Amino acid sequence: MTGPILSVRDLTCRFPIRGAFGREIGQIRALDGVSFDLAQGEILGLVGESGCGKSTLGKAIIGIQKPNEGQVVFEGRDIAGKSPREAKEQRSRLQYAYQDPGASLDPRWRIARSLEEPLIIHASLSARERSRKVADILDAVGLPASHLQLYPHELSGGQQRRVGLARILMLKPKVVILDEPTAGLDVSVQATVLTLFRDLQKKFHLTYTFISHDLSVVRAMCNRVAVMYLGRIVEIGVTEDIFAAPQHPYTQSLLAAIPQINGPRVTENFWLKGEPPDASNLPKGCRFQGRCPHVAEICRAQDPVLAVHGEAIASHESACHFAGTVTPPVPK
Amino acid sequence: MTEPLLDVSNVSLGFRGENGFAHILDGVSLTVKSGEIMGLVGESGCGKTTLARSVLGVLPRNSLEVMGGAVRFQNTDMLDPAYADLQQRIRGSRITFVPQDPFTSFNPVFTIGEQIDDLMKWKSPRRDWNAVSSTPTLLQRYPRSRRAIDREAVIAMLNSVQLPQPARLLQKYPHEVSGGQRQRLMIAMALLPEPELIIADEPTTALDVTIQAQILGLLRRLANERGVAVLLATHDLGAAYEICDRITVMYAGQDVETAPVASFFNVPAHPYTNKLLASVPGLKGEMSGIPGDLPNFYSPPPGCRFAPRCERAQLACEVRPAQTETAADHMVCCFHPVVDHAAAGLVPSGKGQTS
Question: Are residues A44 and A215 in contact, defined by beta-carbon separation less than 8 angstroms?
């Protein structure tokens, strides 16, 4: 067993809220002590509602967002908060796929130029080698060579995602962070794009971090899942365990909210009320207390830590005082 | 047989622009009965929003070309410019609209209360439509006696969509409330004129899954309590399964299949519907997409528009198939519908179900 390829330790990211004259009047704790390991070749899903810090986590790992505290160890080096020059070598093998590839491609550049750019920056290849490599990768993501001469607006949403992926694969990355890779796609296109992700993972030996709010996609794609709530991981474990026996009340609610075709209807007996509280004004104790159906004294006083609870296996951790003992409310 | 509330029959329309004529809706038929929730399902670009807007009668008149058909809402044709006055009376009071994006649908510079007052001034069910006034419409005042009654109705409605502290909420600006609350406000505003039909265009697309479950539940409960019919346009088959009574599937501006919800998910007959259901990720991660792209609306394929992507297509598909009934109330527009699901290797039932 080799060590993890990427390991995140106590990553913390705070955004100041500024009032008049730039005075700091508060803080949003977007990430609050997030730790996890990523093993070679796995797909880790990061799920949670909007505003829970999924994308901030992805951006902090890649170095777009500078974390306030914590470590990101990739290939044995801590790259958290390093300047682009210091970590250039590592970061070329750590790539980030943006949520909206249509917006992340330069509208005035042809696809060929966008695809070639990373090679110009990071690799020392001749022009001929570069264009051969571009053609190879474009073929791998299932686009015809004629698309090289098109502009981004001439492609459909699914094709734009393929181009975004091709651009990432140019530098032979080890770890790819996919930020909402299927948001805004229709199910028929989504299915083909997800199949492509799987094929490429095998072909290029990739490790994915799969950020998504769509639990059915995460279930279909990921080996492990981390559930986030307001800047914390509240439950992490192997996908089958999480979906079969969720321990945290938030995970239980999240799973219960997915509509299941030909299953019982969610809308008739959904128990979770309200919305996440303001991230700048978090309550003392457990963050989920305001919406939790099982809230007790201890939840208001003490912040639960992420740990193995009850009969769960060692890889299944959750952050709840009553983890493993609570079950979702019985439908009326 | 009772007369349907909304009867869209064989509507063909399109828009003329710089690149020629885009033929968007091609012979769409659909009915909504009083008090039922009808799902209008399809992928982006299939004409859901165009159809929803044609029911409201708010398609852009300068580029619109209607080639045939009618959108009848209780004997008023919403497409015919001759009935503009009647349409205006129906729009916003007897047919209301819940938009897709609650973030951009409020005016940011007015309080929520001012915006709801504005709605109630013109569209309140207590408005006297026959009152003759000598002042021009825009200068007319909001009668004080009606304002007080309307305000009570507003507070009661905000309570029934489960918004906390309604009186205080009315003094807030839209940016001060969350997305879920804004969508609740939108539903409240759609229900306040006491309409007979609500058109909800992707009402939960911008929301998280936990909020989606709350909002859909609310919509279903309120619509049933008040006997309001809902036309729910969505691309999310799960959401449609949750609250709809019947579902119509559209593909590239044509309706391909209409069925009651149980029959729709258990025995889908149209090849497109089957492929759409197979694209939803299943329990073990099994899913298959639909290869190919939507046809070009400037030069659409003749007949069935799904034919170029359909493996069952034959020469006959160059003519648009008529609606045929495969089971009770289950209408499909296809010459080669999927009848035997086991033989076709498609077992749609139980998909996505947890053990």
Answer: no
CA distance B298 to chain A (A): 16
> What chain A residue is nearest to B43 in terms of C-alpha separation?
A186
Token pair in block for residue A296: 């007790």
Residue-wise pLDDT for B105-147, tens only, equals 899 999 999 999 999 988 888 888 777 777 777 788 888 888 9
Q: Between A and B, how many CB-CB pairs are < 8 A?
A: 132
pLDDT at B344: 53
Of A220, A262, A268, the CB nearest to B281: A220
Q: What ipTM score was computed for the predicted complex, to two decimals? A: 0.81
Parent domain of B318: 252-332
Per-residue confidence (pLDDT) for residue B343, from 0 to 100: 52
Distance from CA of B50 to the nearest CA of A (A): 18
User: Looking at chain A, how many residues does it have?
Assistant: 332
For domain A6-93+173-318, give the CATH number: 3.40.50.300
- Is residue B276 assigned to a domain? yes
For chain A, the residues whose C-beta falls within 8 A of a C-beta of chain B are: 49-50, 156, 186-195, 213-217, 219-221, 243-244, 253-263, 265-268, 270, 272-273, 275
Tell me which residue in B209, B290, B349 faces A262 most closely, judged by beta carbons: B349
Judging contacts by C-beta atoms under 8 Å, the chain A residues touching residue B289 are 188-193, 195
Q: Cα separation of B159 and B218, whole Å?
A: 12
* Domain ranges for chain A: 6-93+173-318, 96-172
Between strands A43-47 and A207-211, the pairing is parallel
How confident is the model over A298-310, as pLDDT tens digits?
A: 988 888 888 888 7
Q: Is residue B306 part of a domain?
A: yes
Q: Are B69 and B50 in contact (CB under 8 A)?
A: no
Low-confidence ranges of chain B (pLDDT < 50): 347-355
Which pLDDT score, from 0 to 100, does residue B352 have? 39
Residue B35 gets the label, from left (phi > 0), alpha (psi -120 to 50) or beta, of: left
Neighbouring residues of B84: CB distance < 8 A, sequence distance ≥ 6: none
- Quote the CA–CA distance of A50 and B53 in Å, as a whole number: 30
Residues of chain A predicted below pLDDT 50: 1, 332
The CA distance from B16 to B23, in Å, is 9
Contact A241, A315 (CB under 8 A): yes
Predicted structure pTM score:
0.84
Burial of B135 (0-12, 13-18, 19+ CB in 10 A): exposed
If DSSP codes are grouped into helix, strand and coil, which group holds residue B230? strand
Q: Tally the domains of chain B.
A: 2
